[in-house]
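Why show two proteins at once? Because comparison is the fastest way to build intuition. When a single record is shown, students tend to memorize it. When two are placed side by side, the eye starts asking what differs. So, the first record is below.
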Amino acid sequence: MSNFTLVREFGWCDGSNIPFLGEVCPDGSRPRPIRATRPLNLRPPGRWELGILRRLLSSYGEKCEGILDGLLILLNRVPHTDRMEEIVVDGRAIGRFFFVPGRGFVLRPGAELAALLAGCAERLWVRADPGASEALLRGRNLMGPGVVDADPDIEPGDEVVVLGEGVVASGTAAKRGREMPRSRGMAVRIRYVSDGRWRPSRQASWNEVLEANREAIVGAEQAEVRRLTEVVRRYDREVAVSFSGGKDSTAATLIALAAGLKPKLVFVDTGLEFPETRKYVEEFARRHGLELLVEEAGDAFWKRLKTFGPPGRDYRWCCKVLKLGPTVRLILREFPRGVLMIVAQRSVESPSRRRTGRLWRNPWVPRQISYSPVQEWPTLLVHLYLMLKGEPTNPWYDMGLDRVGCYLCPSQDLGDWEAVRENAPEMAEKWESWLRSYAMENGMPGEWVGLGGWRWARPPRWLPEAARVRRGKRHLRFRFSNGRLSFSRRVSLERISNLLRTLGEVSMRGDSLMVSGVVDAVVREDGALVRSGDWRLLAEAVGRGEDCVGCGICLGRCPYDAIELRGDRIVIKDSCVGCAACLRGPCPATRF
């Protein structure tokens, strides 16, 4: 193992005015903590995001548009009801911009950014009485009697800059600007306050950041090369990379190449990929001389919508049907002995990914051992690593997205969707048109689409009421009591009979199916009499047989190659021995 220890969080070197991943700055000082929201998710801004920021700054006045030009800016995405980005300059968050449905992006200046805006603001300003300065410095709200003058075009809810004697503050307007001076009640709800003297320190460049962090970047790569080499030695399997075209899988592939491996690239085209992503994947494979294996999901998403409805953050049938199912099929075809798949997940992305660790088995993808060499890498380290390698990135990082995947992924915030609508309008309109039709057919409020309610099957309570519509697939549910298994709706014996063969021999007797094997049962359209065996296996077989969508995930579980995919359904072949192994892992038909 390497002696290199990866510092989990970037600090800030004030002497160089750069982010630093190490314990001692180039000038010998210790890096200080970056003053921003944890967990830090720092990254360089893309062209689209810089455009948004300049436009928001210009809303305070034309001269304000370029006040951050030439500075080293980082963005730090933070938890919020929608997309929110902290603007990090000089190792501190100087402000935030966030997306508000129906309003667009809004800038919320911090104390430092307000100090800069104070020198150029022609709009969204409020002038405080000198007598109010002391109260403002103590963090008090600005009351109407303390307002001398204000931009008359200010509306309630606007983020404004408050100018006082020896004080600059920022906050949210509580009333119209023309109503503020000497009025009663609150004029501005103050959020941040300072003496107004803050100015950025020395300018720095990304080249300086790279050079200062070179040792840490190379050390991180070498440590991961050693770990990966050890894992490859431990498992006697062919190595491949699950390559999505995103920054993380690009970095993971470069680590594999640095380890002397020549992995095959596995790209699952879900049918919802950006054209730029497909092009990037193909060009990357050519550039590095790697074999590219592509599995197409085709129009499976649009077909399965009829069964499942829109996918959601709490209803991710799409990942299983469009990604994992095709992955299983590709593994069976290309890696019949199994595969060690390099999967570029990172612990900072979600609690579930943090729990899996670097090495894991996915119950949805049999015959695959997954390993992530970038599991503990901070986001900024990934970006710096690709810069150091001179590796181009997916164009969508410059077009407004910080994570690249399916264009209509429900995990996106509406602020992300705004970037998709602007840069891929035809794709966005296709999805929104389908959603509008779905909403109309199901009696949903017209605002349900625009407010993003479709992104949940069971929406959170903080969403506006019009977006809080519960939905989902009408599951076949089961109840077992005294040997009797009841179905929540009638099933087709013809549809389920083939899949019941996974439990043993099946024969038709009158209006019933007789099952004899690991489960002995008499199955009718409305329920079953279970004579012996685990009723849960019978329920799985009935549920899957009734609602199979042909994703193919179960293909990899059969040790006898007794399952095949025909059209939109699986078919159990005569070689099935009735062991029920295929039923002992998860299935979209019964999980979603």
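Second record. Ask yourself what differs from the first in the token line.
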Amino acid sequence: MKNLATPFSLYLLLFFSSCTQPKKIKNQEISNLKTSHFVDIRDGKKYKTVLIGNQWWMAENLAFKTEGSVQVDGPDNRNYGRLYHWNEALLACPKGWALASDRDWTILETLISDNLNVFPGSTWRGKHGYLLKSLHNWKLDGNGIDKYGFNVHPAGHIIDDSPPEFGYTAGYWTSSGSVESGIAWVRFFAAPKNGVNRLESDINTTLLFCRCIKE
């Protein structure tokens, strides 16, 4: 798939659709998670960070303002980060951090999933999305347990200028894409799904969130 669908058709897709793998580490090796904070000196924003396996992730969506980004505020008036065009997302993370790649996401998913055979291809995989989703805000009984402090909130996405609809989805760019192809790999979470979707998205018509990973 090269493009994400319109909001309604995307919902139908989410509801009905069902390289060498990194070595899986044992559950007890990731039970003692390390957390910290990082302050972006560009705007003073303080981010929670979490170490999962050998990866330091920001445990919040990036909120650095760029010319084309869109701030998303939830019904609780809380800022849930900004949605970015892909070309801006590539450069938006602060110094020492980078937009997570497709491989970075695959490593994370492999670490926390019970099924190592679900990751190749472009589809919904596993049930590990439930472990990454936030405890609150997901509609359709879609809340997760946020086992690793990754804190995926359902702050939506934008396609073809449609406004983000809070409560149903969360979409994330990866750095794995190209201007020439016009597409990039993304990760999607949805209220009625416990897995994580790996698919390609049009970089010109879609705005998604950024998760930065420490370089």
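One difference worth noting in the second protein: DSSP finds five helices and 13 strands in the chain.
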